[in-house]
Backbone:
């Protein structure tokens, strides 16, 4: 099963992603692995 998630970061920004292992991905995000900032205009 795939998950789509929205995390609110400590600085108030949001991180949107998808994964098949939500627990592992949150651990990776919190450790800084694979997370990066991108900016796109909202639609």
Residues:
């Amino acid at each position: 099963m795939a998950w789509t998630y929205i995390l609110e970061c400590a600085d108030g920004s949001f991180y949107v992603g998808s994964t098949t292992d939500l627990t592992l991905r949150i651990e990776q995000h919190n450790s800084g692995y694979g997370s990066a900032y991108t900016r796109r205009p909202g639609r």
